[in-house]
Amino acid sequence: MSTPGSDPITLDELENWLVARVGEYVPDLEEAVDPYQDLGEYGLDSVAVVAFTADVEDWLGIRVQPTAVWDHPTIAQLAKFLSAEREERARTA
């Protein structure tokens, strides 16, 4: 898995990556993950959410609480949150 580190990443790139990762946690889907559907509807349990947020942390290089998935329940919302978090942390680093 490549990591963007401090390189710029667009919101679309982040959203696409999140869609792909969620798809890996829910392999029996008959259609692509919808970035506007609540993630809870995909049946992600707490163990999957913790693993998913660890993947996000590794890829983006920022700390992400698992509760972010519930606070920003769609991929579109989560991507916006993560993008803002990454920008904020880059400014304060």
Q: What's the assembly state of these chains?
A: single chain
Strand content range: under 5%
How many distinct beta strands? Answer: 0
Helix content, binned percent: 55-70%
Class from secondary-structure proportions:
mainly alpha
The poorly predicted ranges are none
- Give, in order, the helices and strands: HHHH
Radius of gyration (CA) equals 13 Å
Ends distance: 24 Å
Brief synopsis:
The protein has 93 residues and is mainly alpha-helical. Helix content is 57%, strand content 0%. It starts with 10 loop residues before the first helix and ends with a helix.
Describe the model.
The structure is a single chain. The protein has helices at 11-25, 46-60, 67-71, 75-92. The protein is mainly α and 93 residues long. It is globular, with a radius of gyration of 13 Å. It starts with 10 loop residues before the first helix and ends with a helix.
What are its keywords?
mainly alpha
